[in-house]
Amino acid sequence: SQTIHQWPATLVQPVGSPLSLECTVEGTSNPNLYWYRQAAGRGLQLLFYSVGIGQISSEVPQNLSASRPQDRQFILSSKKLLLSDSGFYLCARSRGLNTEAFFGQGTRLTVV
Amino acid sequence: RKEVEQDPGPFNVPEGATVAFNCTYSNSASQSFFWYRQDCRKEPKLLMSVYSSGNEDGRFTAQLNRASQYISLLIRDSKLSDSATYLCVVSTPTGAGNQFYFGTGTSLTVIP
Questions:
Q1: Residue of A88, A103, A109 for testing the chain B interface, max B β-carbons within 10 Å
Q2: Contact B100/A94, CB-based, under 8 Å?
Q3: What is the pLDDT of residues A62-95, one digit of tens each?
Q4: Helix, strand, or coil here: A79?
């Protein structure tokens, strides 16, 4: 089966601290990978997507970055967190055009 | 203009009722369409794909009208367990891969 792992499930970080969220995928090769953020009571905002190793497209300018060092690994990072970075971060994968997206269980980040 | 627009609700319906959700999308190049369900503080999960011919899965029926760029979801004989937020999602090809655009969701509460 194809699974997608995200960790940690919850995270509380002080303002100005760094961030690293990891997402790994099993059971499929060369997936399209996505990072979304969902603020409280809001819709999903696409942050980054990747169609292959080292290929990252950014949707929203911000203090976050993403990397894909391996085919099945997608990392979301920040050097210095802001209060506005709080939210529910979701990693998703798809097999490409005309296929559905599947999500990891998400990381709930609170910046204090 | 938003890529995907949904009526946010909330919809509060009694058990056994039929409820319909609507969604419009702005990009005529969009190729795939889906309904997702999101429970409180959980990741979105695929409910069903939506095809031009319409498709049905038990009590759930989805319809797509490409000419009007309109998507619908009908839930018959509502159950308490149907209470959730329903997300309309479109997949649009990009220069590299495809992107998923999410509506802000329609909240449904089924009342005993």
A1: A103
A2: yes
A3: 789 999 999 999 999 999 999 999 999 999 999 8
A4: coil
